[in-house]
Amino acid sequence: MIAPTLFVLAAFGSLLVFERDLPTEIVDARYVSPASQFLRTESQDRIHFRDQGESNALPIVLIHGANGSLHQFERWVELIGGHARIITLDLPGYGLTGATASARYDLTADVAAIQSVTQHLGIDRFLLGGHSMGGGLALAYASQYPEAVSGLLLIDSVVPWQRENDPTADEGSAPTPMTEPQGSSTPNDPNDPLPKPNTNPLRTLFKIPGVQYFGRHLDPALFAERAARSAYARESLVTEALIQRYIDLSLRAGSREALFERLSQRGDRQSRAIQFDGPTLILWGEADAWTPPSLALELKNRLSQATIKWYPNVGHLPMEEAAIDSAKDVLEFIEQLKLNQPLPVLDGVSEAHRRKDQDNVSP
Predict the structure, then answer these.
(1) Please, what is the Cα angle at 124 between 120 and 125, to 5 degrees?
(2) What is the residue-wise DSSP string for 153-212?
(3) How confident is the model at residue 221 (pLDDT cuts 50, 70, 90)?
(4) Which residues fall within 8 angstroms of residue 359, CB to CB, at 6 or more apart?
(5) Pairing status of strand 59-63 against strand 46-53
(6) d(CA 297, CA 126)
(7) 96, 136, 220, 259: which has the fewest C-beta neighbours closer than 10 Å?
(8) How far is CA 301 from the centre of its chain?
(9) Number of domains observed in the structure of the chain
């Protein structure tokens, strides 16, 4: 009698924590835009990207972070697009790219995705930006193709090399709703010491086949809101539409399985020589609880031409939480590179518009 009862309880419990996939066509219809394009690569992977802004201006390629999507850069597209050509893409396993035919989600596949899109568009040289995990990817790409990268934008980036006081850290990794933030320093102090070793046992746990099966069916709604509220310092930005977007893109058929495949393929992101001596702008939220500000200082120390812009009371996503201020800093950086038109005046934006920018984010 005990065994059948336990089985019934387990089955009932699974109904509470498991959720079925959403068909790709339903999710795609919900989040595609007129700017969306899809590229079929040589490996038959389908990459979702957008090419927006001023077509004859400086190209900027922007890479999202773990569990993110190109939607996170839409405010920058609005603010910078009149003065730059902005290319955004969903990395393999994420967004409307989702699960790929090759089932490759390692660093090589991510670099290849950027290369495929830029070659498809005929872009030989561009400013490359990356957020969180995407920042580590941008550094890796710039090291591999320095002739293609005129400068770097590193937005609350991970550190893609082995830290001396952190022999157990997972290089190039980035936090997801299923992992811990990188490091453990107090996020509000840019002068705090380097993060303590990150020995997150979840990464080892998720490599167990049975746990992987459970995770691939886990309902992302269970942790989406909590993860979002820990990433955004301004809770007013955590709207129902934002949370629903994260849930829908996670439930897109194949995406949860791709996430666990990415976790299992992280060995390719292990410590490697990062060699880039070009201009670099580091943008960082001082209240970031995911990638602490101490990492910005470490990046600056390792990159010879790096400067830092800090954003008080801003969390992990300054391109959304401080869209106007961070966009102005990017435009000033472009002007310093002498690669684009004179710096446009954004100071004329009304205070009401600025408050709206702080309180709203496009889904």
Answers:
(1) 130
(2) EEES----S--TT-TT--TT----TTSPPSS-S-TT-TTSPPPPP---HHHHHTTSHHHH
(3) confident
(4) 234, 236, 237
(5) unpaired
(6) 25
(7) 220
(8) 23
(9) 1
- Gap between the Cα atoms of 215 and 213, Å rounded: 5
Q: Which CATH number does the domain housing residue 62 bear?
A: 3.40.50.1820
Query: What digits encode the pLDDT tens for the residues 37-96?
Result: 999 999 999 999 999 999 999 999 999 999 999 999 999 999 999 999 999 999 999 999
Instruction: State pTM to two decimals.
Output: 0.80
Which residues are 46's β-sheet partners?
Answer: 40
To which residue do tokens 């990464």 refer? 203
Domain that holds residue 291: 2-359
267 Cβ contact list (under 8 Å, min separation 6)? 106
DSSP annotation of 291 reads S
Nearest 5°: phi and psi at 348?
A: -75, -5
254 CB neighbour count, 10 Å cutoff: 16
Distance CA 5, CA 1 (A): 6
Helix 323-337 crosses helix 351-359 at what angle (to 10 degrees)?
110
Return all residues near 99 (Cβ < 8 A) that are at least 6 apart: 93, 253, 254, 255, 257, 258
Checking phi first, is residue 254 left (phi over 0); if not, alpha (psi -120 to 50) or beta? left
- Between CA 263 and CA 272 the distance in angstroms is 18
State the amino acid at position 147 in one-letter form.
Answer: E
Range 45-75 burial, b when 16+ CB lie within 10 A, else e: bbbbbbbbbbeebbbbbbbbbbbbbbbbbbb
Give φ, ψ of 354 to 5 degrees.
-65, -40
CA distances from 56 to 48, 53, 84, 152 (A): 22, 9, 8, 20
- For residue 287, pLDDT over 90 is answered with yes
Question: Which of 110, 20, 125, 178 is CA-nearest to residue 339?
Answer: 125
